Structure formats: C-alpha cells, structure tokens
Amino acid sequence: MNPPLAQPRRKRGAHPLPIAPTAPYAHGGGKPSRLPDHPHRRLSWTAPLSLSGLFRSPPALAPFLPEQRYVLLDLQAWKKEEIIGGLLLRVTLLVLQAIFRPNLPFNLTAIAALLRQLGDQVLREQELGRILTYATRAGQGLSVTEFAEVATAADPERGGTIAMTLAEKWLAEGLAEGRVEGRAEGLHVAIEDALQDRFGDAGLALMAQIRLITSSASLRNILRAIHLSTGIDEVRQGLEGLAS
C-alpha cells in the first residue's frame, strides 16, 4: 500500500488562504499595431470574468459549471512606479504596459536597461529576445536603429551583436517591422529603414533597384553592407556587383 501524500501542517481550526487569480492586460489606446489581425489592437477586455462565462450550456447545467472568477488589472491605469515585484515580473509588466503607449522605443530602452541587473548572461539575452520579439510583433514596430538601441541598453558590450543576430533570424523568416508578408518583403522593409537612418533621401533612392532583388541571401548581404559601409558609394558598388 502506498503511503499517503504528505500534507502541510496547519493549526487546528485554521483555513487555507485564498488565492485571487489575476490577469494583467494593456488595451490599445494609441495607433493600431502594424499587424492588422493582432488580438490586442485597440481593444478593451471582452472575455468573461469567470470560467462559467466561457461555456454555452442549458440552464439546468448551470450549477455544475466552474464559477471561478479572476481580477482584471488594466496596466494602462497604473503608474510605472506602482509596478513592483521581482525583476523579471516587473520587466514583463512594464513591457506590456508600454507596448501601445507613445514613445515606444524610448520606453523600451529604459525597460531593457533594467536587464543589466541580471548576472546571468544567457538569461539576459533570453529576456531581451522576448522583449524585442513582442515589440516587433505586437507593437508599432521598431526601426533598425531603435532595435539596436534597445539591445544595447540591456547589454552595452554585446547588445549590437545580439540585435543583429535576432534581426537576421527574424528577417529570414519574413518578420520585419511587425510584418509577415514573406521573406523578401520583410528584408525590403528593413533595408529601407536602414538606408533612411544612415543616408536619408539619397539612400531611399536606391530602393527602386533593391526591390527588384528577391533573393533572401542577397538582401541579407545588402542589409549587412549598409550597416558596415563607411558611405553610400560602397552600397552602390555592392548593388552594381549584384547586377553584373
């Protein structure tokens, strides 16, 4: 016969403390996400606040449905200093709060800087990846420069390398600036941002030629060249080399 499971001791007459389930969320109050079908886009909470509200059943079965309720916490109504707790929990809630607020890149940079407190390098990179993934897919998007600034805030020494590694991975999957329209389109968007950031209108003038290129490998090489080049002439020469 198996021994009974050990039970925590309680004082006679004492009752277990209740646990109140909570669901933090942030409604979209600003510009809509660049993902038009994102479930958080400009929406308030619409789901039932109890488990029983999720069921469709005859009235006779109502007494047998779970009635557990949860507390809904709208993070948009909170001040930043009111969000406390462990570092990873605080970072998660701050990102969720900031995702639809104005000045997303500025706010994400400040939040990412909190990750410097993590002594575990691997954990820091994982959390940074989650922040950038969520911002890219759920928010209003980040430019290439903003993407790197957020990463550098979390890790001044390796942030730039981490950002490029993540960017190249997502761009290869067609995820750039919150788009999921195919690899080439995603790379075109990233290249356009990079050209504008580095060379302004002169850089944008190259896009007509670049949009004719559909090879993901060639487009990734162009993106890397833009970041490593010392001037726009080097980028032009690289494009001429691809055309020849």
Topology, pairings included?
Layout: E1 22-25, E2 71-74, H1 87-98, H2 104-113, H3 121-138, H4 144-154, H5 159-172, H6 183-199, H7 201-204, H8 207-210, H9 216-228, H10 232-243
Parallel strand pairs: 1-2
Low-pLDDT stretches are: 29-43, 176-181
Radius of gyration (Å): 24 Å
Average pLDDT confidence is: 76
Number of strand elements? 2
Percent strand equals under 5%
What this model shows, in words?
The chain is mostly helical and 244 residues long. The chain contains ten helices and two strands. Among the domains are: 80-172, no CATH class; 179-244, no CATH class. It has a two-stranded parallel sheet with strand order 1-2. Helix 2 packs parallel to helix 4 (144-154), helix 3 (121-138) packs antiparallel against helix 4 (144-154) and helix 9 runs antiparallel to helix 10 (232-243). It is elongated and about 80 Å long.
Key terms for this structure?
10 helices; mainly alpha; elongated; 244 residues
Compact description:
By secondary structure, the protein is mainly alpha-helical.
